[in-house]
Each structure stands twice: as structure tokens, then as C-alpha cells.
Amino acid sequence: MVDKNILIEELKNYFGFDTFKGNQEQIMENLLAGHDTFVLMPTGGGKSLCYQLPALLMEGTAIVISPLIALMKNQVDAMRNYSEENGIAHFLNSSLGKKEIEAVKSDIVSGITKLLYVAPESLTKLENTEFLKSVPISFYAVDEAHCISEWGHDFRPEYRKIRPIINEIGPRPIIALTATATPKVQHDIQKNLGMLDAKVFKSSFNRPNLYYDVRPKTKDVDKDIIRYVKSMEGKSGIIYCLSRKKVEELAETLRVNGIKALAYHAGMESAVRSENQDAFLHEKVDVIVATIAFGMGIDKPDVRFVIHYDIPKSLEGYYQETGRAGRDGGEGQCVTFYSRKDLDKLRKFMQGKPVAEQEIGKQLLRETANYAESSVCRRKSLLHYFGEEYDADNCGNCDNCLHPKKKIEVSDEMCAALETILAIKEKFRSEYVINVMMGKNTPDIQAYKHNELEEFGSAEKRDEKFLNALIQQGIIAGLIDKEIENYGLLKVTEKGKSYLKNPEPFLMVEDNDFSDTEGTASPSEGTSAVDTELFSILKDLRKEIAREHNLPPYVIFQDPSLEAMATTYPITMEELKNIPGVGEGKAKRYGERFVELIKRHVEENEIERPEDLRVFTIPNKSKLKLLLIQSIDRQVALDAIAESNGMELNDLLNEIESIVYSGTKINIQYYIDQTMDEDVQEEIEDYFRNSDTDRMSVAREVLGPEYKEEEIRLIRIKFMSEMGN
Which among 285, 343, 295, 299 is positioned nearest to 319, based on CA atoms? Predict the structure, then answer.
């Protein structure tokens, strides 16, 4: 056992710190005493130090099991900076040649190496196992230990083999460390590593300096990101995308718009990846656009923003990735762009996987969707997910708390939810509970005869969105418990049963609405920046022009386009073309009067205009636009165009809508005639002719379920093209 004073002296000696952070000291003392140790500490809390200092003080070499080569390199480089001896830390993985491996082994045998970083795959190799049996080992550190659990956000089957290998090499104390673990994942880790008796050190997951913000993901998301990154000029940021293709595209789009950005994903050559990572760490570039392959153990304290271009697959992944912002305690903005369409894509990716894995994946996605759509304090939701209670109602540092929604009293509905869960014997998920409460006669409900229950239809006047928010807020309030390991079955807690006996007022905020983000353009800057007086005048002008042309006003320009005009004040036709949803065609057709009106408003009110943001597109986008227009001119079937370009039909329709809404006229009548009856065409077109909005959610509701979404979108494209361009 090392004396406490000596521990602080060595901390100063090796790392230059005068004091320990959080519970680092107690963790080290436990490990130095030879006990198994479990560390649950958020990103930036100083996990690595918990095993690095003990390794330097103990006899033998510490084996650090780590999932990524890039992470090992980063950690080894950092350790070598703290010592005069380069051999103090090494890694052993597939990137090394025979001579390099021999040099590593030589340093270990001679006692120079105190930390050896290995991947689980390298640990299983017979020659490595045999070698490690012959050298003194101080302890084993399992970094990123959440990789052990199928319920973790980055499950790796090789991590399940760690305990048998440790037994073969020779048992020594184990320290397992992770930045994200729900109670279920924590138990999985301890059970699999055979360390159920380990002392657990759990730090608070609350990062007060991080600002959490979930925004609708619209078709202008690239422009939104460029505008945001430019507002953070000179600051470091990470943008996460799910696909490698999007990583490459977005990095290039940022570069052509004057932002110093590089890409990073597992499909790139190792040397290029390392080069790009180093460029970011050494501040040669401001932004790294990456898949989740980037970031584990990247010790950059001053990342000022983390953007999620796509919603992550789990809240653990989200928490770990956002946790890379503001590790120094300074500003850290976490902005996520969310669309339900992205969730559908992620569900599709799960097809073909084992059923149990699909069920886990779907449950994790539901949790992510609930978080994104909730109007409850983001911090409160996140901490609850990780088993930590947050008492404050308003954290003051998330979008929901800075722009709170009105609360409504729902004690009757809460009692109905609790009674329904009990009536169906606490054996079903939230979706099923909601269906019973709404009085839906689904085959499952009929099979279980739950349509005969008194609780059936107890909330038939409420919709699914409302009831989902009710249940989620009941969970956060501790009235309902969701059994994650049993695929989300709902139970009523003792607190919930007490509430049923003595109900009190229950205040709830309704969820945010993300139901129709994909088809709309976003305002140039949030609505707070809109000149409301100008916006009102522009709407009057739009109405006047619409009357002259006998068209619905939205055909001229949509609201988001007017909001953007009332934010950036375009006073030339060139500037107007850069407004979302305008484009050259619409600018020529309708733009002149709008530009004149804005110019007059700016002069009369002596307004100082913000410098307009002009977003340059990469050539591929222009090529795709040209290719689509040419293919449609040749009357190629739209499904054939989609297939030949590796797209889903929905994605193709998004591209065509973007072309049409920007003022280019195209004719898809040939495809409509092939796929739709004439009377269906007429009825949908009549709807758009007489409607004051082109929103899909409204169209679906008014037209009813007999019309397919694809049919409505096709006619909307035709109508906008013919009437507006």
C-alpha cells in the first residue's frame, strides 16, 4: 500500500498536478491495495490517470486492454511525454512489424515498460499469451469496458473473451473503466469480467458546462451546419455522421465554404486517418467530420462543439460523443439534428441480425427517440437514463429549459396509465399500453382480451404522442419503471401505487413535434432572429402576388423562406437566390418585388444588415441535380432513376422536391400516369389547390389513409412545378 502523501508527490512528479480530481485518489488506493475496481466516470473526468499512476508505482507491467489502435497510439504518446524513457509505454497490435514487436517485448522483459496497451484480438494470439505468462504483471485495466455488454453502445464480441484469457495468463487485480453505463450495462460488465465483488466508484454524469440542443433535421441541414460552424469561427468541433459517404461529402462541403475541416472514418487508410487526427489535435484544422470510430480517448480538452448530423443509435453513444465537448470545463455545445426518417433507416440496418440483437437495438433506438422528442429538461432525462436523479426542474443550459413549454395538469391521465399497466399485469411495453388506453382493437389486444378491460379506451381522446410523453414523464417522476433488460416492459413502482391511492396534481409538458421535418426548409437563423415586422409585410406581399396568380400563397414562397428573408435582408437578386427554397427560377419569377420591399424596409429603418451567408455546394450535388433533370426529361421511371443512383425512392423525391422548390420546372406527369389513377390525381391536386399549406402531415390527415404518402408527394411536386415555377 502506497502512503497517501507519496501518492500526491508522485502525481506532481509524473503528471504535474497538485491535487486529485473527484474520486481518483480513492480509486488508486483501492487498486494499489490489490482489489478489483470498477470506475464509472464521464468523459473528461480523468479515467486514464486512475490506472496510469498506479502502473508507474507498482512492480511489473500493467496490461491495458483497449479497443482502438488510434486510442492506443494517443495514450502511449501521452505517457511517453511524462517520462524520459520512451519504453515506459508500448502498444502491441496488428500495426507493428516483427522487429517492432521484438523491441516491445525486450523493454517489457527488462522492466522498462510499465504500461502495455493491447487490443483483445492481440491478447488472444497464442504467442502473446505465452509471452505474457513469462513476465510479472501488476494488474489488468479494461478501458472502454462498455464494449463488453450487448446493451452498451459499442458492443464488441472479442471483449467477452477477456476473462478467460486473464485466467490463462495469470489472475491479477482488474480495473474496468467506462464513461457510459446504465445499471444494466454495469452489471453485465462486472458479471462478464468475474468482478461482482469489485468496489464501484461512480462519478456524477452531470456535466453542467455542456449545452444540449436537439433541432429538426430539414433538407437545409448542411446549410444550417455551415452557418453554425461559421458562428463558432476558430473553435474546435467534431461533427458525427453515421455513414462514411456522408462524412466525406460533408467534410468537402465545409472546405469549399471556407471551413478548415477533415474527414475521419474506419474505411480510410490508417496513415491518412492518423494524419487527420493529428491535424485536429494540433489545431491545423478546426473541425473533424467523423463516424463514431473517432473520439475514444482523444484527449483534446478544448472541443467547443459536438454536432450529430444523424441521431445516434443509443443514448450511451450520444452521451459519450457529446462528452468530448468542453472537457476543460469551458464552453461545450452539443447540437443534434433529428428526423424520424433517420430512425427508420437505423431500424432497416438491423434487419438480418439475430432477433435478440434486433430487439435490443430497437429498444435503444426508442430511448433515443424519446429523449430527442421530449420537452423535459435534457439533463434530467439523460441523468435518469444512467440511474442518477437530478432534482432541479430547470438546468438553464439546454434547449428545453431555455425555451420551456407550458405545463398542463394530467393527473387523471396519469392514473389511467398506471391502472392500465396494472390491469395488463405489467407484461407489456409502452406502445401496447398506449394502444389499450387509446382503445385500439389490434389483433394482439383482441387475442389477450384486453379490449374487454375497463381501462380499454380510458384515454381515447388523447393521441399517441401525448400518451408517450405522459409515460416517459411518469418514468422520470419515478411512478413507472421501464425494465430495459426485458425489452422495455412497464411496471408500476411503489411510488406509483401510492400515487394511485392519493393522486396529486401532475404537471406535464407535451413532446416537441418532429413529425414533418424532412420536407421543409429551416429558417436562416432560429425564429428569435426574425424581423417580425418585415416578416408580416412579406407575408402580405406574398398574399397579394398569390391572388394575382390565383395560387395558394405557399406556392410563391414558403414561410421558412420568408423567415430567412426577414433575418438576412437580401437586397439584390443575387442575394435572394441564396435564401433557402428560392433559387434562380423563383427569384426571376417573383423576386423583384420582394427585393424592392426589403431594400425599402432596410433604408427606412436604418437596419445594419448581417453579412449574408452564401453556401457553396460541392460539384457532385450539381452533377446529381443535372443528372436527375436529364433523366426526367428522358422520361425514365423514377424508381429506375433511384436504383441506378443507389438511392431509395423517398430520397430521390427529396432531391426532386429540392429542385422544384428552388424554382426549376420539371415534368413528372409520365411517371404519375404510370403509377396513379386519374381520379386519385385529381383529388390530391384539388386538395393542394385549395389548401393554405403544403405540409405533408396536414395533407395526410385531411386526405386520409386511402392515399399513399408517395402519391401525395408526387402530386405536390407536380403542383409546385406547374403553379410556382
Answer: 295
Give the orientation angle of helix 221-231 with respect to helix 244-256, to 10 degrees. 60
Distances from the Cα of 89 to the Cα of 64, 80, 162, 720, angstroms: 10, 7, 21, 64
Q: Are 183 and 200 in contact (CB under 8 A)?
A: no
Q: Give one DSSP letter per residue of 289-326, joined into a string.
A: EE-TTS-TT---TTEEEEEESS--SSHHHHHHHHTTS-
Q: What is the DSSP letter of 284?
A: S
Count the alpha carbons within 13 Å of 69 in the hemisphere toward its beta carbon. Answer: 13
Q: Which domains does the chain have, with CATH numbers?
A: 4-202 (3.40.50.300), 210-402 (3.40.50.300), 408-508 (1.10.10.10), 527-604 (1.10.150.80), 619-724 (1.10.10.1390)
Q: Give the number of C-alpha atoms closer than 13 A to the C-alpha of residue 11, restricted to the C-beta side.
A: 20
C-alpha separations of 708 from 649, 672, 700 in Å: 14, 13, 8
Region label for 535, one of left (φ > 0), alpha (ψ between -120 and 50) or beta (otherwise): alpha
| Nine cell digits for residue 664 | 426549376
Q: What is the DSSP letter of 516?
A: T
Residue 427 carries which side chain, given as an amino acid letter? K
Which strands make up the sheet holding 236-240, listed edge to edge? 210-216, 332-338, 303-308, 236-240, 287-290, 261-264
Q: Compute, in degrees rounded to 10, the torsion defined by CA atoms 677, 678, 683, 689.
A: 130
* DSSP, res 396: S
Give the Å distances, CA to CA, from 517 to 341, 342, 530, 557, 648: 9, 11, 20, 17, 18
Beta bridge partners of 38: 176, 200
Beta bridge partners of 90: 116
d(CA 575, CA 677): 42
Amino acid letter for position 559: D
Q: Within 13 A of 318's CA, how many CA atoms are on the CB side?
A: 31
Residues 6+ positions from 264 with CB-CB distance below 8 Å: 247, 273, 276, 277, 280, 288, 289, 290, 291, 293, 294
CA 562, CA 576: separation in Å to the nearest integer? 11
- What does the block give as the cell for 721? 412545378
Angstrom distances, CA of residue 582 to CA of 284, 543, 660, 691: 36, 17, 10, 21
CB atoms closer than 10 angstroms to residue 484: 18
Higher-confidence residue of 304 and 704: namely 304
Q: Which of 650, 630, 649, 413 is nearest to 510 (CA)?
A: 413
Q: Which three cell numbers stand for residue 535?
A: 416578416
What one-character DSSP code corresponds to residue 377?
A: -
| pLDDT tens track for 55-111 | 999 999 999 998 876 677 778 888 888 877 888 999 987 778 889 999 999 999 999
The predicted-structure confidence for 317-352, as pLDDT tens digits, reads as follows 899 899 899 988 899 999 999 998 888 888 877 777
Q: Cα(198)–Cα(193) distance, rounded to whole angstroms?
A: 10
